[in-house]
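Quick illustration, no need to memorize.
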Amino acid sequence: MSKTTSQLNKSDKKVALVTGALGGIGTAICEKLVASDYHVIATLSEDDPERIKKWCSDNGLDSDNFEFLAVDLSNHETAMAAIQQTIDKYDSIYALINGAGITSDSSFKKMSFTQWKEVIDTNLTSLYTIVHPVFLKMLEQKTGRIVNISSINGLRGQYGQTNYCAAKAGIIGFTKALAYEGAASLITANVVAPGYTHTPMVESVPEKIMDKIKETIPMNRLANANEIAAACMYLISDEAIFVTGETISVNGGQYMS
């Protein structure tokens, strides 16, 4: 008798949960996970079969390697319940990579409370919703890998991004504290902090502004999404078992902390 998909995933494949999976960096992470024989649970903000179909087609990905989970992270109880149901279905989550995030830029003197709250809620508060049920499962398993995506601007600050920088800096503090709590159970928690990266959002920046940005990067170019994904893959690998509570910067030398 052949194995069902769920049986195959439980017995033969490690399961990875990826938030922000359909973004530029998230797509590169998913590609590398599938190439490494993971089954991927990919979250998106709403159920959108056409977008999923196009994403798989555009990136040469087989939808059989994925479960797509629609979660509204602004609705804590509903989102947490959906994540818990998925954990129960697979009975094991080996890796969690959090890449979901938004921006709503403005100088602080002009920033509305709505702009502040939306960015903090989506980029930082949502970590509780996502990580808490997964972390409890990893404690039960006595193993697991958590990687949270921060930003160069969470380390150095950036004009017009007090909300974004606060959230991304908060991710680093959150991850360090989580690393303490998980270490005895062989759960690692680390951060990847990308610099400016070739993604659709960044590529929409006017060319003149982008040229000025590149001048501030010693390597004189933007990061490739695959380079960010490679750092994530290292952190969830067996070789990185003794690395926890750390922040890996991938920014071409633009900021060295």
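DSSP finds ten helices and seven strands in the chain.
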